[in-house]
Amino acid sequence: MDKISLTDEQLIIAFQNGDRDSYNLLVHRYKDKLTNFIFRFTGDIDSAQDLAQDTLLKVYIKKDSYKEIAKFSTWIYTIASNLAKTELRKLKRRQTYSISDLSTDDREFVIHRPDEGSFEDIEDTHVFGSILEKSLMNLDEEFRNIIILRDIQELSYDEISKILQIPLGTVKSRINRGRFKLKDILKEKGVNLY
Question: Looking at the domain 102-194, which fold is it?
Fold first, then answer.
């Protein structure tokens, strides 16, 4: 059987049984996803890359602590989320955390599209992405994390509940409240969502 067609759960079990190629395939599948997730959580690409590596290293070292009762993605995102939260606490203690570090350009972008509801050209998409990144950093940590997991990483409510270790009802409530807060922040920046 071709390893590429194996599920994440099958790959981690193969790795637990000594198959290092299975680990390499998991790294290939998750490295960019983890970096993206952690970047949106911390707002620092260097830190995100380091924490993604730390997450993958933890998977390597703690491979035997994975149990097949949970999806592999839930397990790995839980590790990444915990590492990102720890890093944010360290940054806050050092008081070096700043959303202005997201770009070297402190000017605010304003998007005016009176007759259109979508971003059709690459430049507008890039500008919107920049505004979205900054807006996410303005959300409280509990809302930022949950919005990233649901709307960007596209994880299920159940997976998010397991990753964050909170009840399903709380997940749904925080997603709704987080979306409203994000919409308000975007509106302040001149972005109207339909």
Answer: Arc Repressor Mutant, subunit A (1.10.10)
- What CATH code would you report for 1-97? 1.10.1740.10
Q: Cα–Cα distance between 101 and 120 in angstroms, integer?
A: 28
How confident is the model over 22-51, as pLDDT tens digits? 999 999 999 999 999 898 878 888 889 999
Q: pTM of the entire structure?
A: 0.60
**Max Cα separation, the chain?**
58
Tokens standing for residue 151: 């709307």
Q: Token pair of 160, please?
A: 């998010």
Ranges assigned E (strand) in 85-189: none
Backbone angles phi, psi at 142, to 5 degrees: -65, -35
Q: Phi first, then psi: what are they for 155, rounded to 5°?
A: -85, 155
